[in-house]
Amino acid sequence: MVNKDKEKKININGEKDKMKKEKPETNINGEEKKMKKKSKGNGDYIKELMENEDISENLIARELLEEMELLKNELNKFKESENEHIDRIKRIQADYENYRKRTIKEQAELIKRANKDLIEKLLPVLDSFDSAIEMAVSSGNEDNEFFKGLKMIYDKFIEVMEKEGLKIIEPVGEEFDPHVCEAAVTETADDVKDHHIISVLRKGYMLNDYVIRPAVVKVCIK
């Protein structure tokens, strides 16, 4: 009986020693499980682990690596979001710049078109001035005060129109160009080359390098 009691005590003491040896490992495993339950991305939590002497360095290092990987992934997400916003801003700026250029061009075209319509309506007035001046010259009344006043008004009128882009087509002596002239009469002339213009029967005009009325001309044909 005495021997059996001694064996039991020895076994009990052995179990206690074994439990004492295994206890720190159990604590570490428990801390590791506790760490896994903790939310990631918490700098205070990492600091707390580093200050805890009961936590192994390997466990802290592993947790730090996981934390760094998490932060790296979050940084990549922020960079992707930033690039998307930058691309969107660039597209908006490009669209606005195209819209601004298109609007300016449309406004310029609208002004040109308005000027063209107005000037075309004034061309018969210029024709009347031309006819009056030609009649005065042919009748020898160039020194008449009325003629001088008429010529002065005509010159001022032409000056204003030229500032708006109007240009008189003057093709006399040049080769016939169907883009700017209309041949109304043809005749032979010794002092003019073949298919060249002898005279202008009605003035033609250009507005900003566009023909708004071709010149009606007499062409030499040999």
- The largest beta-sheet arranges its strands as 1-4-5
The CATH topology label of the domain at 168-222 is Nucleotide Exchange Factor Grpe, Chain A, domain 2
CATH homology group of the domain at 168-222: Head domain of nucleotide exchange factor GrpE
Low-pLDDT sequence parts: 6-10, 18-41
Which class do the helix and strand fractions yield?
alpha+beta
Beta-sheet strand percentage?
5-15%
How many helices?
4
**Mean of all residue-level pLDDT scores:** 78
Percent helix, as a range, is: 55-70%
Task: Summarize the entry for a quick read.
With 222 residues, this protein is of the alpha+beta class.
Tell me the layout of helices and strands:
Layout: H1 2-37, H2 43-51, H3 57-138, H4 145-163, E1 166-169, E2 181-187, E3 197-202, E4 204-207, E5 210-213, E6 215-220
Parallel strand pairs: 2-6
Antiparallel strand pairs: 1-4, 3-6, 4-5
Helix pairs in contact: 3-4
